[in-house]
Write a structure and sequence with these properties.
about 90 residues, mainly alpha, 5 helices, globular
């Protein structure tokens, strides 16, 4: 979660605070945090990592479902979600 966007001081999660899905006023970062806090913290590290990965993949699937991909791909700061998914964060 400490991943930086475009070598800036802004963290990926901070960059996602500027984006909301067309169907919701809730920011993408809030949706991410809401789901991650529901994961079992007592699970082994690998299980928690898998859980975080699933949260990110669900957000990505929602991007596809709501045709939100174009905005994600064209805005340089929003590449944070793509980076987080590719890194498994």
């Amino acid at each position: 979660m400490a991943h930086r966007v475009d070598r800036s001081n802004e963290r990926a999660l901070e960059a996602l605070t500027r984006f909301s899905f067309p169907s919701s006023d809730t920011t993408v970062s809030s949706l991410f945090l809401d789901k991650v806090t529901l994961l079992e913290t007592t699970a082994a590290n690998s299980e928690f990592s898998v859980g975080v990965g699933k949260v990110l993949l669900n957000l990505w699937a929602r991007c596809l479902q709501e045709s939100f991909v174009r905005l994600l791909l064209t805005h340089s700061r929003s590449r944070a979600l793509l980076t987080m998914v590719s890194l498994g964060l």
